[in-house]
Specification:
alpha+beta, NE0471 N-terminal domain-like, three-stranded antiparallel beta sheet, 6 strands, 30% helix
């Protein structure tokens, strides 16, 4: 049985209009309203204050107390 490897991000960029994920050599873009309801309602400064976890598995927005998994965001981006 093959070992499943979780999806991680090498880097993220938070812009005023979207979250940009750098995953396995690809660049995936998600508008804030697709990321989560809390991020959709957040101010630009709150959105830009994002931190990628050391292992690349999740993203944390301290001012919003919001945590999202990279794997879940990648699935959203790939769903179109």
């Amino acid at each position: 049985m093959p070992t499943l490897h979780p999806i991680t991000a090498e880097r993220i960029d938070a812009t005023p209009s979207e979250l940009v994920l750098h995953v396995r050599g690809e660049i995936l873009r998600l508008p804030w309203d697709r990321c989560s309801p809390r991020l959709a309602k957040a101010s630009t400064s709150q959105r830009l204050d994002a931190a990628l976890s050391p292992g690349g598995y999740g993203i944390h927005w301290p001012g919003l107390d919001e945590d999202l998994s990279v794997q879940g965001l990648v699935r959203l981006a790939q769903a179109g």
